[in-house]
Design a protein that fits this description.
The chain has five helices and seven strands, in the order E-E-H-E-E-E-E-E-H-H-H-H. With 169 residues, it is α+β, with helices and mostly antiparallel strands. It has two domains: 132 residues, no CATH class; 33 residues, no CATH class. A five-stranded mixed β-sheet has the order 2-3-4-5-6, with helices on one face. A hairpin with a 2-residue loop joins strand 3 and strand 4. The longest helix has 12 residues. It is elongated. It starts with a strand and ends with a helix.
């Protein structure tokens, strides 16, 4: 996807990104998706010297495999984001870099370009449902002997004990 030259970024720039078929296929493969039918973003860039702040909205239509059945599960992503691009710090290879709480969405750049497209794909990855379920997931799980959270919890255990005490199980 898009890599932007720092020299071409103006403070307050607004950019609209729309991934083409090739980019969507590459991102889908990278993220383990069955498909990525739409991936676009609206971004506002604020530049202060070598620092670039990017904020906006990522929108996508993704197809993920159901965690229980493997069936396709389609969902829409509409996620706000705020990212900060900073120059790669000069540190010894063995030295650790500590980031504060407010620096967790920092992406380092090489001093000439920022990899905005890669950062947007990472933002999409973080917005995905980690356990997508198809409409048939519950029935499939029950069929193979997986109990629900309610059955596994303390009240489920008490209900099971009550059934056993009453001779029903």
């Amino acid at each position: 996807m898009d890599t932007l030259s720092l020299a071409n970024i103006r403070d307050g720039d607004h950019r609209d990104f729309k991934a083409d078929d090739k980019d969507r296929q590459a991102i889908a493969k990278r993220l383990g998706l069955l498909g990525l039918e739409r991936f676009e973003a609206n971004v506002t860039l604020i530049k202060d010297g070598q620092r670039v702040d990017a904020s906006g909205q990522v929108r996508a239509k993704v197809i993920q495999p159901c965690v229980a059945t493997g069936e396709p599960v389609t969902s829409m992503i509409d996620e706000p984001f705020t990212l900060r691009f900073l120059p790669e710090p000069e540190v010894d290879a063995d030295e650790e870099i500590e980031l504060g709480e407010d620096e967790m969405d920092v992406i380092f750049h090489d001093g000439t370009t920022i990899a905005l497209g890669d950062a947007l794909a990472d933002t999409l990855a973080l917005a995905l449902n980690p356990y997508p379920r198809s409409p048939d997931a519950e029935a499939h799980l029950k069929e193979v002997g997986v109990i629900s959270e309610e059955e596994a919890g303390p009240f489920g255990a008490l209900a099971d004990l009550k059934r056993k005490m009453e001779g029903g199980g």
